[in-house]
C-alpha cells in the first residue's frame, strides 16, 4: 500500500512541481522581458548621452587643434623680441644688458644677419631722402638708429624709414669724450637686436657710394672690422697723449684714426663692455685730446689689431689741410666725382685689391642733395 499510495502522491507532487516550474518559467521570461526592456531603455538613453558626450569631446578636441594652429610655437620668440627703442634704461643699465653674448656660437634658428646703420647727428638728417631711396626694397636686412641732440623735437613722417628710429640721446660736444659715449650708446642700442651683425657709424653729412645689395654683401662677407688706425708723430698725433694715461695706455700704443667706423658684432660687444680703457679717456683725454679720434684706434691696437682692416670705409678729403675735411657743395657733385670715389682699390679679406674701397663718403652739405638725388640712383644702380 505504501508503494501504491505513494504513487499518486508522487504524481501529484510531480504535477505540482511541474506547474510550479511552469510558473517559474513564466516569471523568468517575464523578468527577462522586463530586464531586457529596461536594459533597452537604459541603453538607448545612455547611447544618446554617449553620443552627445562623444560629440562634445570631439568638438573640444577640434577646439584644441584649432588653437594650436592659430598660435604656432613660442620657441625663442619672446626671448628674441627686440625691446622698445625709447626705453628708460640708464647708460650703465643699457651697456650691461647690451654686453650679453651667447656662449653657444651656432644659432638654433635661421638667422638673417642685418646691418645696423647708426646715425650720429646734431639735428635733422638732410640726406634722408637719398637714404630713403637707398633702403627701399630691403626690409629685414637693415636696422636704423639715430642719436640726435636731445632738444631736437621734429618728428619724421610715418612712411619714412627713419620714423621712430631715434634712441634715448644725450648732449654731445665736438671732440669731447661724450661723443664716444654717444657712439657706445648707439652700439649698445643696436646690439639689443640679435640679428644685427655689422655696425656702421654715419653722420648727417654722409652718403652711400654703392647700392644696398653691394654694401650689404661687402660688410656681411668681410672678415675684418673697419676702424682707421695709424701712429702719427707730432702735435695732432702722439702730442695728444697724456702721461697720466699710463700704465693702462703707453705712448707707443697710442693711435689715431677717423671717428667713422664699421665693426662686426664681436668687436661691438668688446667696445660696449670695455671698463678698462674708456674710463682712462674720460678722465685724461680732455681739451685738445679729441677722444673720438683716439679711443677706438688705441683700444683696437691694444687688443684687437689682428681683427681690424686698419682703414675706414668712409671716403673723406683731407687734401686741403686744417682740422676739418673738405665739404662738398652743390657744384662739386658730378657723375665723374661720384665715379672717382667708387673707383678705388683696397685690400679686402686678405686679397691684395678689391674693386671697391669706400662704401660711404663725407662731407656733403644739404644743398648738394638735389644733384645727388638726380645722379646717385643711376650711378649706384639703386633698386627701383
Ligand atoms: C621744438 O623746439 C623749438 C626750439 O627748441 C621750439 O621753439 C618749438 O616750440 C618746439 N616744438 C615743439 C612742437 O615742441
Ligand atoms: C659672400 O660671398 C660668397 C662668395 O663670394 C657669396 O656666395 C655670398 O652670396 C656672399 N654673401 C652675401 C651676403 O653677399
Ligand atoms: C692692423 O694693425 C695691426 C696692428 O695693430 C696688425 O696686427 C694687423 O695685421 C693690421 N691689419 C692689416 C689688415 O693690415
Ligand atoms: C677706374 O680707375 C682706373 C685707374 O685707376 C681707370 O683705368 C678706370 O677707367 C676707372 N674706371 C671708371 C669707371 O672710372
UniProtKB/TrEMBL annotation:
Protein name, entry field: Core-2/I-branching beta-1,6-N-acetylglucosaminyltransferase family protein
Major site of localization recorded for this protein: membrane
Source species: Kalanchoe fedtschenkoi
Membrane topology category: Single-pass type II membrane protein
GO MF, one example: glycosyltransferase activity
Keywords, ordered alphabetically: Glycoprotein, Glycosyltransferase, Membrane, Transferase, Transmembrane, Transmembrane helix
Source organism, top-level taxon: Eukaryota
Subcellular location: Membrane
Transmembrane segments: 21-45
Pfam families, alphabetized: Branch
GO cellular component, one term: membrane
Amino acid at each position: 500500500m505504501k508503494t501504491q499510495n505513494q504513487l499518486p502522491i508522487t504524481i501529484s507532487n510531480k504535477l505540482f512541481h511541474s506547474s510550479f516550474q511552469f510558473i517559474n518559467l513564466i516569471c523568468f521570461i517575464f523578468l527577462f522581458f522586463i530586464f531586457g526592456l529596461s536594459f533597452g531603455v537604459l541603453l538607448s538613453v545612455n547611447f544618446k548621452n554617449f553620443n552627445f558626450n562623444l560629440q562634445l569631446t570631439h568638438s573640444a578636441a577640434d577646439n584644441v587643434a584649432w588653437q594650436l594652429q592659430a598660435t604656432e610655437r613660442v620657441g625663442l620668440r619672446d626671448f628674441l623680441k627686440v625691446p622698445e627703442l625709447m626705453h628708460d634704461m640708464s647708460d650703465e643699465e643699457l651697456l650691461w644688458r647690451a654686453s650679453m653674448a651667447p656662449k653657444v656660437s651656432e644659432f638654433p634658428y635661421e638667422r638673417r644677419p642685418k646691418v645696423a646703420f647708426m646715425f650720429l647727428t646734431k639735428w635733422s638728417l638732410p640726406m634722408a631722402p637719398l637714404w630713403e631711396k637707398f633702403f627701399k626694397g630691403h626690409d629685414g636686412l637693415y636696422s636704423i638708429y639715430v642719436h640726435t641732440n636731445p632738444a631736437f623735437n621734429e618728428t619724421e613722417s610715418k612712411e619714412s624709414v627713419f620714423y621712430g628710429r631715434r634712441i634715448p640721446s644725450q648732449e654731445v660736444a665736438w671732440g669731447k669724450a661724450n661723443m664716444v659715449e654717444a657712439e657706445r650708446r648707439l652700439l649698445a642700442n643696436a646690439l639689443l637686436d640679435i640679428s644685427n651683425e655689422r655696425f656702421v657709424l654715419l653722420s648727417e653729412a654722409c652718403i652711400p657710394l654703392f647700392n644696398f645689395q653691394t654694401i650689404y654683401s661687402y660688410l656681411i662677407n668681410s672678415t675684418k672690422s673697419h676702424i682707421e688706425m695709424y701712429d702719427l708723430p707730432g702735435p695732432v698725433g702722439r702730442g695728444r697723449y697724456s702721461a697720466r694715461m699710463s700704465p693702462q695706455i703707453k705712448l707707443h700704443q697710442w693711435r689715431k684714426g677717423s671717428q667713422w667706423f664699421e665693426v662686426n658684432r664681436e668687436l661691438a660687444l668688446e667696445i660696449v663692455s670695455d671698463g678698462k680703457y674708456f674710463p682712462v679717456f674720460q678722465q685724461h683725454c680732455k681739451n685738445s685730446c679729441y677722444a673720438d679720434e683716439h679711443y677706438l684706434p688705441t683700444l683696437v691696437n691694444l687688443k684687437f689689431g689682428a681683427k681690424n682692416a686698419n682703414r675706414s670705409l668712409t671716403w673723406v678729403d683731407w687734401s686741403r689741410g686744417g682740422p676739418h675735411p673738405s665739404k662738398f657743395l652743390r657744384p662739386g657733385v658730378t657723375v665723374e666725382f661720384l665715379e672717382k670715389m667708387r673707383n678705388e682699390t683696397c685690400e679686402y679679406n686678405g686679397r691684395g685689391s678689391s674693386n671697391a674701397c669706400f662704401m660711404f663718403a663725407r662731407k656733403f652739405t644739404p644743398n648738394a642733395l638735389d644733384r645727388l638725388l638726380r645722379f646717385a640712383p643711376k650711378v649706384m644702380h639703386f633698386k627701383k
